[in-house]
Automatic annotation (TrEMBL):
It is a multi-pass membrane protein. CDD domains: CuRO_UO_II. It is found in: Cell membrane. The chain crosses the membrane at residues 45-69, 90-112. Residues 23-120 form the Cytochrome oxidase subunit II transmembrane region profile domain. Keywords: Cell membrane, Electron transport, Lipoprotein, Membrane, Oxidoreductase, Palmitate, Respiratory chain, Signal, Transmembrane, Transmembrane helix, Transport. One of its GO terms (molecular function) is cytochrome-c oxidase activity. Residues 354-392 are annotated as: Disordered. It comes from Sphingopyxis indica. GO terms for biological process: ATP synthesis coupled electron transport. Residues 135-247 form the Cytochrome oxidase subunit II copper A binding domain. This is Ubiquinol oxidase polypeptide II.
Amino acid sequence: MPSIAPRLARRFRLILAAAAIPFLAGCNMVVLDPAGDVARQQGNLILVSTGLMLLIIVPVMALTILFAWRYRAANRQATYRPDWDHSTQLELVIWAAPLLIIICLGAVTWVATHLLDPYRPLARTAPGQAIAAETQPIDVQVVALDWKWLFIYPEQGIATVNELALPVNHPVRFRISASSVMNSFYIPALAGQIYAMPGMETKLHGVFNETGQYTGFSANYSGAGFSDMRFAVKSLSDAGFAQWVAETKAGGGTLDRAAYLKLEKPSEKVPVQRFASVEPQLFDAVVNLCVEPGKMCMHDMMSIDAAGGAGIAGIRNVRSLTYDKFAARGTEPGYWGKRYVGALCSSPLLAQDDRPDATPVDLAPLTGAGLPSPGEPDSAAVALASRPAPRS
């Protein structure tokens, strides 16, 4: 009787494993069976890399079991060589096999790294289906917000929140940025993930080869609402995409800078929103961190810095920020709280502090530190004009 129990237990485990197979068949294997050509190539790369590594792993595991069984203590027939320490043939096998596999993995990875570069425009929509030179990809501008995704379609003039629709068999070019912290833009059925970072722009190219409903999400932790930072992805036919665009335009709503600043505030589990029109250059303002009215854009600041700076005359050209994640920006005590550089060409109405409780600023001509008196030449300009020209 004692010898029967282990056999029954072993058979019971085998039955449970066999019964689990139908349930495992329903698992979502979207990474290895995606709907886009780029993601499919990435899935094939995973399979090829895994197969190459198994070429050495499986024999090692099999030999481990074989040696343990053959040289067990009860096997008196096993060869016993206590003085053996070297075998040239065995050394060649031990070192040559992994080296060849590493060379193959390196070659495959190097080729795939260049062919699947997310910044690289697509050369095909599917195996054997090259993209014509005159074909223009669909542009989608992506902004990672706390904790939701904003999609702007500049060619269609619309925008959506937590909903992305794309036509099937059309190359897509994403321009990706973020509003506050780093996120990761990932649609497993379409292409690989790429980071979304504030003040920066990343790119991603992809294409859908099948229609259907998919899911995208952030693959990088970004705070309390991260787990619900998901969005619906629709792969539609040409007619379906045109209808979706028409429905979005008919829904009304404008995404201007004021609406964006409200949308930018942290919120969780945000339902799908659609905007029939979008303020031009909004995405570029997001990337350059100058959506707030009167705030200097990074590219303008870099241009001024490249020209030598604005001089001491611009030392106090700052404004208090009016909005933050949890309170009003610029509410900290002291002059140098959270502030930003004001645009040099901003409206006079924006020259005062942006805080609601701020007292109006006197807009009379300024005199004092770093500024010339009225009617007198600017000493800095005179010094700059008298400076000898640099040698070429």
